[in-house]
Amino acid sequence: MISVIDHIQTSRDRYLAELGQFLAIPSISALPAHAGDVRRCAEWLGEEMRRIGLENVALIETPGNPVVYADWLHAADAPTILFYGHYDVQPVDPVDLWESPPFDATVRDGEIYARGAADDKGQVFMHLKAIEAFLKQTARLPVNIKLIIEGEEEVGSAHLDDFVRAQKDRLAADVVVISDSAMFDRGVPSICYALRGLAYFQIDVRGTTSDLHSGVFGGAVANPAMVLAQMLAQMKDKGGRIRIPGFYDDVLPLSEEERKAWQALPFNEKKYRKDLGAPKLAGESEYSVLERVWARPTFEVNGLNSGFTGDGAKTVIPATAMAKVSMRLVPNQDPDRVAELFEAHVRKVAPKTVTVTVTRMHGGKPWITSYDNRFVQAAGRAIEQGFGKSPVFCREGGSIPVVSTFQEQLGVPAVLFGVGLPDENAHAPNERLDLENFHNGIVASAYLYDEIARAGR
Ligand code: BES
Ligand code: ZN
Questions:
Q1: What average pLDDT does the chain have?
Q2: Could you report the per-residue pLDDT of 103-113, keeping only the tens digit for each?
Q3: So which residues are the catalytic ones?
Q4: Residue 433's pLDDT band (cuts 50, 70, 90)
Q5: Which ligand is nearest to the CA of 190?
Q6: Half-sphere exposure of 140 (CA within 13 A, CB side)
Q7: How far away, in angstroms, is 350 Cα from ligand 1 center?
Q8: pLDDT of 133-187, one tens digit each?
């Protein structure tokens, strides 16, 4: 173990240079124009896995982007880890807000700036470097490991559920390990035991066949922008409660124990508000901020489009209006059921003066697990060795759709050990990863394999 950790400590510069290559590939899954880059990224990753000594490396085709698979299965009698991550990244717009080019990794003030630095290439790479260190120094790993790194996470992992179902036997493991989330705060490492789910829609409203002169026709036809705004306004009340009938039926209430535990976390609401630049925080006042973002569902408008938005003024009644909306879901809400409730509610509030269509985009189930199992305990010890501090347990508001599929299909515990920071701009301009956390994360990953081996099968 000592030689492995020493090797990691002396390879820092090389790790950075290599991570830079991974980050240079613009594997944006949402944009068809980048399909070639996505594939090139999968190939790069496969090559890197082969190079560090992983075996059975394969790009497994799906109807969408390939899943990169690799394994190392020579630790007889030791547990098997199924490691999951993603090599796809979010779009970079608005690109002029980036202080350095998003695909030209740049180090400033101890952080590496690039799209995917935190979400999720940097965190995937951290595990590859821990594996590399073991294979280089000891020619073996203390555990068996299977890795699946997918290329469609940022667009809802549409083909991964089928993949996991079809490859259930090939993916059999004792524990799932994922590093695709954040630590609670700088200097506060954490293990995440619940994620929110997601249901995403596009709403299209059409009033007339063409845009109209607002003087000639104004007063006689509905205005789709106005109708859409009114419909959206009916989705939530002033207290932040969602008004879709039945929406809260399956929401798992927070236990007193959990509420108490969260109150003890080092969270400063004033600083949180200030850092966000918000004049005042919003939401359900009977819940704390952490409760709102971790354990309560939301309804959000992600984008709106209608009519004339250029410079100057144009007297027009737009023919159409469009909104992208999504709901974050909490255990035990089901995205399909929520979709039905939402569509029914839209039908109810849509006036007869327009035609309204709702299109289901992607979704994912929420996930929650208990954290009193030996693998989570093992991860706690590993994190303590990597970060010098034992982790806190928290939920997260984001979504990783496949985690609940792993739970359902493989029936094994998952350890979510993320080293991003909440303010590292995932999905936003100037995404970055703290290099100290990256390095401590490599050390912690190495200890994690060792500790999981000790935890036994
Ligand atoms: N890494 C995030 C998920 C995440 C973020 C987990 C913060 C925990 C804390 C992931 O890459 C992501 O952004 N997922 C999407 C999924 C969606 C497209 C189905 C999300 O949450 O919006
Ligand atoms: Zn991610």
A1: 97
A2: 999 999 999 99
A3: 88, 153
A4: very high
A5: 1
A6: 10
A7: 31
A8: 999 999 999 999 999 999 999 999 999 999 999 999 999 999 999 999 999 999 9
State whether the beta carbon of 115 lies less than 6 angstroms from ligand 1. Answer: no
Q: Residue 203 corresponds to which tokens in the numbers above? A: 């709403």
Q: How confident is the model at residue 457 (pLDDT cuts 50, 70, 90)?
A: confident
Which stretches within 167-288 are classed as H helix? 214-217, 224-233, 256-263, 269-276
Ligand 1 touching residue 298 (CB < 6 A): no
Q: In sequence order, which residues have a C-beta less than 8 Å from that of residue 171 and are 6 or more positions away?
A: 82, 146, 148, 164, 410
Distance CA 342, CA 327 (A): 10
Q: How far apart are alpha carbons 39 and 47 in whole angstroms?
A: 12
How far apart are the C-alpha atoms of 5 and 444, rounded to whole Å? 10
To test the pocket of ligand 1, the residue of 399, 415, 433 to mutate (highest count of ligand atoms within 8 Å of its CB) is 399
What domains are defined for the chain? 2-195+366-455 (3.40.630.10), 197-251+297-363 (3.30.70.360)
Pocket test residue of 180, 300, 329, 405 for ligand 1, highest count of atoms within 8 A of CB: 180
